[in-house]
Write a structure and sequence with these properties.
The protein is built from 10 helices and 9 strands. By secondary structure, it is an alpha+beta fold. The longest helix has 37 residues. The radius of gyration is 21 Å and the shape is globular. The protein starts with 6 loop residues before the first helix and ends in an 8-residue tail after the last helix. The mean pLDDT is 96. The structure holds flavin-adenine dinucleotide. The site of flavin-adenine dinucleotide has 23 residues, from strand 1, strand 3 and helix 10.
């Protein structure tokens, strides 16, 4: 057992940290409040190879794993730049295409994802189905050489920034009559695909959308993989990277908040000569949050290591636990930091309250804390499903 990163991973961590700090939380908030995207940061991270660390080298990536991508997510978040689209484009879409796409799809999409010039977002959630993807209502119907998609998706992040959206639909299995999932790489400008922006209470340069698919006609080669049998394994292959990288983003955000608060409480004096951090009522909650963040980081490391070793089932358990732990720890850390800063905690200038919406959402998305607890109860504790 080792808790050390390799020297390459250490270098990656230092380099991403330096990049994140050059932009910083002020840049992230400024972009969000102006309704703009973090285009410069994304482009630079892409040029430096950080967005493609987990993509195979033959398609322009770094040839690393989810461990490396988690480092990128955590360090950018620790610099105050938690980029949700890292979880969607390099983690989910690139993994699904690299593992299950056709050779043509790999060649067409992975180099752009690796250098950051292209983004593919991910659409699974639906207004009716919610957490229960077995009830997906977006239907794909074969029509000659094409597929025709109809349905509704909600809360889809980054559609306005992406060239394609990976749509999870369902088709009818001709042998069983049952419905089964199929994934399509749909151009965001496809005829019949429209969107409307949701107003979210999150300070974020990334937006969420309702997506309407009305007779969206796409050619057969947009179906991920060689056949419909690819759908289910392709969908599942995106889940572990999603949970691990979103957990890493949460851990980074927690570190950022605790660091901001610790700097403040170590120097702020309101009662004579002592810093407010000398009072345990201030320092213990911060120390407690630091413990929770560090525990989450340990589980993230375990999940990423298992995933990169090809131990997908074990990585599934660890990845869910890591996501749960990091989601809770990040929310605790940001809330504790706001409290420790007093009034300053609620200002934009001190840059912690600006993360309240994001960490709150991190307990709901991309998988809610309740659905993780359901997963653990069923798969680890052997409990019966209630639904
Ligand atoms: C900021 C943000 C970004 C997002 N980005 C994307 C994206 O890019 N792509 C995408 O596809 N989706 C995205 N989502 C959607 C997100 O994945 C869903 O919101 C999430 O999975 C929960 O689904 P729901 O909102 O339909 O909640 P519901 O399924 O309606 O659930 C509501 C509440 O009930 C609880 N609940 C439901 N069923 C059970 C049960 N059986 N047992 C216990 N509790 C239960 C849930 O945990 C939740 O707290 C995003 C959401 C947010 C907030």
């Amino acid at each position: 057992m080792t808790f050390d990163l390799t020297s390459e991973q250490d270098q990656l961590r230092d380099a991403v940290r330096a990049l994140g700090r050059r932009y910083g939380h002020g840049y992230f908030v400024e972009k969000a409040k102006a309704g703009e995207h973090t285009t410069e940061l994304w482009a630079e991270a892409g040029r430096l190879g950080y967005l493609g660390v987990n993509i195979p080298t033959e398609y322009g990536g770094g040839g690393g794993g989810i461990t490396e991508l988690a480092i990128v997510c955590e360090e950018l978040a620790a610099a105050g730049c938690p980029l949700l689209l890292l979880v969607v484009s390099p983690a989910i879409a690139a993994t699904v295409i690299a593992r299950h796409g056709t050779e043509d799809q790999r060649k067409r999409h992975l180099p752009g994802l690796a250098d950051g010039s292209a983004k593919i977002v991910f659409a699974i959630t639906e207004p009716e189905a919610g957490s229960n993807f077995h009830r997906l209502g977006t239907v794909a119907r074969r029509d000659g050489d094409d597929w025709v998609l109809n349905g509704r998706k909600c809360y889809i992040s980054g559609v306005d920034e992406a060239g394609h959206v990976l749509v999870v639909a369902r088709t009818e299995d001709s042998s069983t009559g049952k419905l089964k999932p199929a994934l399509f790489i749909v151009p965001t400008d496809a005829a019949g695909l429209t969107r409307s922006k949701l107003d979210m209470e999150i300070v974020s340069p990334e937006n969420q959308f309702l997506l309407y698919l009305d007779d969206v006609r796409v050619p057969a080669d947009t179906l991920v993989g060689e056949s419909l049998d690819t759908g289910l394994p392709a969908l599942f292959s995106g889940l572990n990277p999603e949970r691990i990288t979103v957990a890493a983003m949460g851990a980074g955000t927690g570190r950022y908040a605790i660091e901001r608060a610790s700097e403040y409480t170590a120097t702020r004096k309101v009662w004579g000569g002592r810093s407010i951090g000398s009072h345990q009522g201030v320092s213990h909650p911060l120390a407690h949050a630091a413990v929770q963040v560090e525990l989450a980081r340990l589980m993230i490391q375990k999940a990423a290591t298992l995933y990169d070793a090809g131990r997908d089932l074990e990585a599934g358990v660890a990845g869910n636990m890591a996501k749960y732990a990091a989601g809770e720890a990040a929310a605790l850390a940001v809330d504790t930091a706001v409290q420790a800063l007093g009034g300053a905690g609620m200002t934009t200038e001190y840059g912690v309250a600006t993360l309240l919406g994001a960490v709150r959402a991190g307990r709901i998305a991309p998988v809610s804390r309740e659905m993780i607890l359901n997963f653990v109860a069923q798969h680890v504790l052997g409990q019966e499903k209630s639904y």
